[in-house]
């Protein structure tokens, strides 16, 4: 099959089994600027909007893409070359289905001072600015969870509010312009995997604004909306195999996205300047976002961290491979059942035990080539955000922490930078060099890993956790990760 270059001009020539926009893309007008045009956004928020547009709705809510890091320029070039269209390929265990999504209409230039982004956010027709900038990108203090005003990026934006380097600095600058011009507030919508993501986004934007203009901060606090939300869809990184898969379906797309046959979006209905009717295409508006996000973050996101480091050490290439490994799968099920699910409440339609089974099924989908390396990336943020809150709650409740201690020991061993077959694990954390030094020292003195109070805080002095961590890390170093897994799963 000849693969047609994806563009507006070729949409009508694509194979007939490939779904595509039925709306007039030239008639769309923007209402959303989205910062962070990675695979997740294009398979999730962009898809929900596209589905509305397919019904003839939300034609004035098209997305303008944006980025704040130099590496975003490559994605911009790829998407603009194909008229901002994206091929989504849904992968079930035994089938694949493709759809071209057209809700995005432009991608702003990537600039050091974010001038184009500030100008776009200042336009009166823009009513939502959304973000997918990773859970570690919100400038939270690692210990207190408060606004990290002393971070070099925040210090730069405080000293140079008209030429910020961060997304949050650009948002604050644009809100100052909107306030001065009388264009009104906008909704700032985080779509990252952070519990209370809207609350944290409010904290960062207000903290930055208050450091330069208290009156602006008061206006933002009173007028702008920061809805909390929970987002869910497993979306692997794109590489040559994904591009080749799109080509095999007849589409030459330089940035296709593969995804699982599951999506969920739960959000507070708190939009100060209007919103698309996403609930008409499956999104859930509710005041109970916290319960949904707790279930998802603790069982899915923490579940990823439960198995990813073991998978790296044992050379499992993908999350599905991890779930095929009997010892890693046993770790997942036992930790989930005994040490995570007890601290998760049911939500309408599903109990924690049912959700554990759903996640196990989703993780086991062999068609989703979600690499263990991708899931293990930035453990310093993901363990802090996903695992340690459960650990603290379990300790407070007097519950078992044996499996969670093993999970932390596996992370400490993984950060030493070698797999058990002797191969090297390439740098996979913003703090990798520092972590590697401490991880190697912990081979002889496991408790030296826990001295990292920026991660562990008071947990580092909890005897029940510390003792089991010490036992597990010593066993992993002396007998191997598999022996530790088998000891835990089959004591």
TrEMBL record:
Domain Mannitol dehydrogenase C-terminal residue range list: 289-471
InterPro entries noted in UniProt: 6-PGluconate_DH-like_C_sf, 6PGD_dom2, Mannitol_DH, Mannitol_DH/Oxidoreductase, Mannitol_DH_C, Mannitol_DH_N, NAD(P)-bd_dom_sf
Pfam families for the chain: Mannitol_dh (PF01232), Mannitol_dh_C (PF08125)
Enzyme class: oxidoreductase
Oxidoreductase found in the keyword field: yes
Taxonomy, superkingdom: Bacteria
EC number(s) stated in the UniProt entry for this protein: 1.1.1.-
Domain named Mannitol dehydrogenase N-terminal: residues: 31-280
MF terms in GO: oxidoreductase activity
Protein name: Mannitol dehydrogenase family protein
